[in-house]
Structure prediction request, 583 residues.
Amino acid sequence: MSVGALIGLVALNTLFLAAGTSLVWALRGFRGPSEVARLAGLSYLLGLAVCSVLLVVELVVGVPFGAGLVVANCVAVAVAAVLATRLLGRPRTGEEPGPNAVGPVLLTGAGAALAVVFLEAMFRAGRLAGLFEWDAMSFWVPKAKVIYFLGGLDERLFLEIPGQSYPPLVPGFQASAFAFMGDADVVTVHLLFWFPLVAFVAAVAGLLAPRVPALLLWPLLLLGVLTPEVVDRALAPQADLLLDYFVALAALLVALWLVERQTYQLVTAAALLSAAMLTKREGYLLTACIGAAALIASWREWRWAWPRLAVALVVAFVPTLSWRIWFTSRDIRGEAPEAGGLGLFDHLDRAWPSLRLALSALFDADLWLVAAPLGVLAVVLAFVAGARRLPAYAALVTLFMVAGFTWVTWSFPSLPITKDGALNPIVRLTGSLILTFAALVPLLLATAWRGEREGRA
Amino acid sequence: MTFSDVLHSRRAAWGVVLAAGLAYPLLALAGGAPRFPSVEDCEHPATSDGKVMLVYGYFDSVVRAGELRDRLRGLGYEHAEVQGDGGCGRVRVVVRGYPDLEGADDAVSEASRVGLHPTVEADFAS
Prediction:
């Protein structure tokens, strides 16, 4: 831990922000400097997602890793965005609301002030955090050290470290931090994960501020990130929360796309989902849940919506093939469910306990406060108020994700039915849905508040 | 200026954010400047009897630490071993198992006769 290491982290994350800002500018355009600031969180996470996916592909094909490669990736992404804008013309911002916040601006200020204090406290807590998280010291950080010290995916070591089939996006992210800090500083690396946390809060707030009254937005968003599990694990040098940010923000962007039909929303969601699939294996499951929910929620406009959704999902999936080819060509197993394809039916006795465990983890107030009951309530209120597409999408995302979490415990018979994180990943899994609620619930309640009808929401 | 004006004032909103954003670090810094631990924080001189060890050197390289360990073993320190420094990223060469400071000090004197200068440190691992 040194000032130099902190400066290195700031420099690295500024590069991701710059690359992402260029992308958002190319995809959507900005209506002024205040909009650049409002969408900075979205820009950062998009930049991180695209640059990290690019890095994974490069590592797989054997490009030597170093700080220069990370810088080159960010510059290449920014230049590509500018060139695309030159060739294809400036995008129109379209029919989006805003740019001003809804309701008294002082309430927005108060909400933002609370978020700032929370994030500062998280920074303080993470500054001298030791590497005590089991998965982090078992494989996430060792893999990052391999990339940093040996310049790539050293085959021998990657085959010896646990979690061989886990995708290398997070190790690449951490190795980038090591390169910018000048050392494999396993203390300061906790603060690397502070930047995506800040960006997630800023991204949801920035996207929803012109759409949702501040009185609804800030308390509900903060409730999601202040849950004990998020506070406890947000700075752990592991993949769980980063996956959750990508998934939750993608789920929100798809929800907005279903209502507002802005192309940038779907394109950005596709990039985030691609990064999610390269962050953890669960990313595939969660992407499938969001994709299926969007397909069903848009069935009335299927001619318009489905081809676009299909293209977005394929584009999100294609970069993940690189890692799949790498590990399958080395005969690494453990990716498929333990019970096999039809093996679920040999373990029917686990179905109900698995569902009960998923629901019990989701609604556990000691873990997630009241985030899940509020999510269900928001869906019901939006339906009652007359909205259809948005609450249907949110309900389907919830339903599919709960089914997915159930399937995980059911299809791995060696997993005991318990919420103990050392034995069953169910609590970590439900985090994706909790943060998705944090992003969707303000929008659902705003829809219910306005009593919007079919066609708009 | 009415209450409604304040509610809709951008300046007031930015003021609230700025005040909260500055208040927290200022309150935290009131207790002193932030500390940046160094590798020396993993060196703990022994101050009382019980669980004492002699540290013959700290190294950034396991290979170099191993060389010193081998040299010590050649001199008769059969229990010399290489271990992590307890979280600061270095490795050290130690001889553990001294029950009190007096015995450790005697061992330091003996070591100095062959040109070694170990330090007496608390052995938290035992």
